[in-house]
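# nightly structure sweep
# worker-07 picked up a monomer target from the shared queue
# config: single-sequence mode, recycle default, output format = structure tokens
# input follows
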Amino acid sequence: MGGRRLVRIGWALFAACAIVGCGGGSGQSPGNVNAFPCSIGVQRQAIHDIMLEWYFFNDELEQQQKYAGLDPATFATPDDLLAFLRYRPEQFDRGFSFITTTLADSQFFGEGEFVGFGFGSKFVDSPLNADLRLTQVFPGSSAALGGFVRGHRIVMIDGRTIAEIGQAEGVSAVLSAGGDGFTRTFLMRDALGDDFEVAVTKTLVTIDPIPFTAVFDVAGAKVGYVDFRTFISTANAELDLAFAQFESQHVSALIVDLRYNGGGLVSTAEQLANLIGGIIAVDKILSKTLFNSAKSAFDSIVPFAQLSGSLSLLRQVVFITTGSSASASELVINALLPHTVVTLVGSDTFG
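# output follows
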């Protein structure tokens, strides 16, 4: 666990994640054991030891029983071991604990980069999960160059329908497999219903965490808008600039678009919360971070603090959310609820 704090769960407390590095990696997708140059046995033991020491749910009897007599060597891969150790994955640890490389972690949260096709997607026909649509396409990515546009439907991947993939290994496994240079062929359907096929290769994608901001004049009041894509460190300077502009234009209402923001750095979440509520809630509790009982010495409380760009005239905040709004997004929303008028527009968040 490094000095960076990540929030992986929709509460003010979080599950310790298994981020294991055995000498670096190649920027491949999380869960790829080939990203580690050390042996599978060493990886399994590292997962066991980290979870046993840091996992938030270790105080639960059910979790303690999992460790009793547990032999990591009986699991084929580190991912299999982690899947066994995750606490009630359908209810609590819903993918918040996972394996990645230190390089991929640093690239994403520190530099705003990841290796991938360059798009986000979600099912729009739950629970059938056969209609997969693009929610976002990153400018300059292979997907963007291939003609992918938000709203397009992914019909097939490498000649297999989405339904067929879902009944086998799952779409997430197919999309996360492979690293830089890995290619898959997509059959896409555009907004007019026309199909086109394109081969897309994974490359290094750069995320613009705040692609758009604006100030609107609504019935004589100034309303700020910020499209916030993800909580990474490269967002910090952009947040400061955006809120300085909001404050200079006397914004009294704010719209924060978190539709596909799955979370990220707690420090960036705290910065956003302070820019919104640093004046109206100064010195009041912003968040509490709780560990398991063995690590309770690390428990902490963070108060709201006024920043140079904190909004002084704020009267209302509207968050646009979906089921993909998670983690640090929910932390900001919950932190502000007791202190100002908070309205959610859209659908329930992930938590």
